[in-house]
Predict the structure.
Amino acid sequence: MTSTAPLPRRPATPLPLAAAPEVHPPPFRLPGEHFVAALLWLALGAAGLVLTAPQLAAGNIFDPRVFAVTHCITLGVITSAIFGALYQLFPVTMGRAVRSLGVAHLTFWLLQAGALLVVAGFWFSSGAAQGTGWVAVGIAAVLFGPNLISQSLRAYPDPVVGRYIAAAYVAFMAALGLGSLRIGETLGYWHVDRLAMIASHFHLAALGFASAVAIGVGSRMLPMFLVSHGFPRWPLRWIGPLGGAGLAGFTLGQFAGSRGITLLSGGLMSLAGCLYLYLGLEYFRRRVRRTLDPGLAHVAAAYLSLAIGAGVGISLLVGRGGFSPRVWAVYGLLLLTGWLGLLIVGVLYKVLPFLTWLHLFGPRMGEGPLPTVADLTRPAWGWASLACLLAGLGVMVPAIGFGLGAVARIGAIAFALGVALVLAQAGRVLRLWYSR
Amino acid sequence: MNGAISQELEAHRAEAMKELRRVIDPELGQDIVSLGLIYDLVVTGSDVMVVMTLTTRGCPMQGPITDGVRRVLSDLPWVETASVQLVWDPPWTPERIRQ
């Protein structure tokens, strides 16, 4: 007895079975500890921003405390969040599991200890702390590669994403390598052009590493959360090669002191950035969920920061007015806290409640009425955090640009208030997780 | 006789489809039938096989949703085995959503 009468929307084509390998995500503790660390680093970074905002407005971008806050964001927030997201993403969406959970936990602690030492080393001007910290971060990075990144090139079913992540890892190692050049210089082993080193190091970290991961992982995650369909895939094939070539050329141009190479490669990076902004716009434009929740609104705000940051970057590239540290400070702020910071907050607003829902209610699916993922959060807190973060950036950016230290600090306080709300929201969700 | 069997199968099929509406996508807040994720439902005696997709390939909800499908179908008194075949071709598109 068989009934196979077609359903109203039965597809006309044959139905091959899904060939996705069964790979289970790691226990929540692994990505969870990374996400919690990233949020704590965000709080520390926001506090540091309050203290150093006047320095930024004064154009003292080489102040060791400014470096401390910068590395709070890059190593603490961004790298912790990226490592955690990759540990979670790979098994579920890429069909590849982390090789060793033990090594993964080890890289976490090495990264945290290293970042803490680096930040403290900058803040308290301790070369020994910095050196030890960089060694720990370096070991964490080296271990992370074979444990997870080598899996990315065999990622199923989307090798493009795997290539972005592998390329990001190369940029991460290159950024660390350039950082070590500076250590060698400090110890008197060699001389490097400080501006060239910092400019290259910054772009490799912010664009080559963090943004490449955001592009690759985001190409899976954002359409999933927005329920976007019909967006073009071709920009993904160009953004990586254009951005990668641009970044390599930019680094070469900086160290060779060639304005021509810098201009050309900066142009390639700008083109890649524009293509990515177009793709991001398409993700949002072609979404089925018309109403944005607070998490996705943070992501939209991140794209806006990227667009403004790209504009500032292009003005720095083509400008002939000489070195302008305040504009560099604005550029760094827009890319690190605006683009990457807001993006991470937005993604965590989606991922933490989602994983908590899976933990609490996933096994009960179909048993009866269950809360939705949105029910686990307080949207009002999410909107309030977005308002504070945007107000903070909106005040800080012009204040730093015009050299208004006190106003920049007020903006930083608003930003810190937004971060406090993000932490409160995350804390609420995590309490739910541990409630059962 | 055949007509009676056919009627019974259709009734089972309709009943199974109704049960599938109890499986709600927690992110979108909509059931999997309304979302158009069910491509086919094959009833063979006391066996039910659901051919379905997800909104995104590699969706983290894959396990809970397919488990939920098996669970709600197993609740039916006439079902002995409930299975799920996950397919990606043709891919899900928003046009499949039924409000």
